[in-house]
Amino acid sequence: MTKPIIFLQRAFREEFIDKIHAIAPDYQVKTEITPEEAAAVEISVGWSEKFNEPLLSTNQLKWVQSISAGIDSLPLAEFSTQNILLSNGSGIHALSISEHIIGVLLGYYRGLNQSVKNQEQQLWGQNTIHYDQLAGKNLLVVGTGHIGQQLSRSIHSLGVNVYGINTTGHPVEGFTETYSIKNLAKIVSGMDIVVGILPGTQETYHIFNSDIFEKMKQDAVFINVGRGDTVHTKELITALTEKSFAFAALDVFEEEPLPSDNPLWTLPNILITPHISGLTVDFQNKFMQIFLANLKAYVTTNALSRNQVRLDRGY
User: Fold this and answer.
1) Which InterPro entries does the protein's record reference (predicted)?
2) pTM of the model
């Protein structure tokens, strides 16, 4: 009888392959598969659209471990219909993204962004530098999961007051107060900084729109490191053009790469980064801590122990 396959859709170091074999000796581990072997794939680590048909047509696939935290591009309806377990990489990027956000804020408030531009022109330009103090600012984290909690821990030492938005408004450790997402439009008016860290779902699609932007403080900062489609791009462009709020920093976009003719490129009050906030040192080790823990649980109980995604919710 052919052993079931654990299909790794990206390469991992040999030390991790050995650990997979030790935990699941009754499985084959492959990084490439033939069409015939697709019928034996029971566990897929990572997902690519090109494997939708071969892997989903056999009804042998039981579990997908997403490499990223975001899973909105995966065929969730098909996973649900076939009762396929799904887990994600949530938490791996928490420290990296938190540091990115803090870097963006310090760059803006301490005039570093403008100093870089001045340096390119060999311009001293001290009187052109915008500066402010990060300490004492009210920061709203829209999405109080792993990343939001890490951001709260990291930025508290800088004297920032951190508030949170989540689905129900339930309290989360590290946040001064938390509010329900339905109250977002009411809360943003009192915040100096609004950070989007939301998954891409039907409920979060274009949640950051003109209604939100128009209610923000005129000197407020908006940062998005969640999913690109949580922001209504056209309405953001209008808000930045009309200076409804002061500054935006976007690391994710509705269309990536961001087209060269998109008006966002030409606006003076925005920082664009090419989806780099999640780049993480020692990624393989951090990812494997999640996958190997889940693999141990799966081979003994057919259940998962970490980061299981609710397919009906999309996160």
Assistant:
1) D-isomer_2_OHA_DH_cat_dom, D-isomer_DH_NAD-bd, NAD(P)-bd_dom_sf
2) 0.93
Same domain, 86 and 109: no
What is the extent of the structural domain holding 156? 94-272
- What's the rounded Cα separation, in Å, for the pair 217 and 286? 38
Helix (H) or strand (E) holding 162: strand 161-166
Secondary structure tally for the chain: helices H, strands E: 10, 12
What 8-state DSSP symbol labels residue 298? H
Which CATH number characterizes residue 51's domain? 3.40.50.720
Q: What is the mean pLDDT of the chain?
A: 96
Could you tell me if 200 and 87 lie in one domain?
A: no
Instruction: Tell me the HSE value of 13 on the side-chain side, using a 13 A CA sphere.
Output: 9
Do 142 and 187 belong together in one domain?
A: yes
Q: Do residue 288 and residue 258 come from a single domain?
A: no
> What is the count of structural domains for the chain?
2
Task: Give one DSSP letter per residue of 167-236, joined into a string.
Answer: SS----TT-S-EEEGGGHHHHGGG-SEEEE-----TTTTT-BSHHHHTTS-TT-EEEE-S-GGGB-HHHH
At residue 2, the pLDDT reads 84
Q: What is the pLDDT of residue 314?
A: 87
d(CA 51, CA 68): 17
Pairwise CA distance, residues 156 & 152, whole Å = 6
User: Does the bond joining 54 to the residue before it have cis omega, within 30 degrees of 0?
Assistant: no
